[in-house]
Specification:
Order of helices and strands: EHEHHEHEH
Strand order of the largest sheet: 2-1-3-4
Bound molecules: 4-nitrophenyl phosphate
CATH class: Alpha Beta
CATH topology: Rossmann fold
Helix content: 25-40%
Shape: globular
Number of strands: 4
Radius of gyration: 14 Å
Largest sheet: 4 strands, parallel
Number of helices: 5
Strand content: 5-15%
Structural class: alpha/beta
CATH superfamily: Response regulator
Length: about 160
């Protein structure tokens, strides 16, 4: 069981080299700003293992560095044990959410879509910059918009 004192969140995208590392990095920045290192644990993973062991995409790293967002994650594929390790698992788009449900169909209570933490009317999916659905800076804009609400959600413990 997860430690009751520490709230944990795992961000999940397809390759774990663009969107979910950015969400992890933005959360780390917020956690550092608020001195919450001992209270919140953050990680990220991909639904595919194709990029396992790789750092974030260089274009994503450069865009993040310009905005002082740490992007230290190394790509890994999600595994079923992650459902036991994390309180909350946040899919960056609906395809990622479908893949998470396919991995374990009994964990609905832990799963959220990133866009649930965005203002009403926002697009359902964080666009995939790797396939050119949006620019890397646009992805950061969206992630920066949603992460404060995710932090609040974790601190409320709900
Ligand atoms: P991400 O972007 O899911 O935001 O990390 C992608 C990175 C790599 C691939 C797909 C999406 N890929 O198919 O290699």
């Amino acid at each position: 069981m997860p430690d009751l004192e520490v709230r944990s969140v795992l961000f999940v995208c397809l390759g774990n080299i663009c969107r979910s590392p950015t969400a992890e990095g933005v959360m780390h920045k917020l956690i550092g700003r608020d001195g919450l290192e001992s209270k919140i644990h953050v990680d990220s993973a991909g639904t595919i293992g194709y990029h396992t062991g790789e750092p974030a995409d260089l274009r994503m790293q450069e865009a993040a560095a310009r905005r002082e967002i740490p992007l230290a994650s190394v790509s890994r594929q999600i595994e079923r044990a992650d459902f036991d390790r994390f309180d909350l698992i946040i899919a960056m788009d609906r395809e990622n959410l479908r893949d998470l449900r396919a991995l374990d169909s009994h964990r609905e209570g832990q799963l959220r879509l990133f866009s649930e933490f965005l203002p009403p009317g926002s697009a359902a999916d964080v666009p995939d910059p790797y396939y050119g659905q949006a620019g890397f800076d646009r992805v950061i804009d969206i992630v920066e918009q949603g992460c404060p609400a995710i932090l609040e959600h974790l601190l409320r413990g709900s």
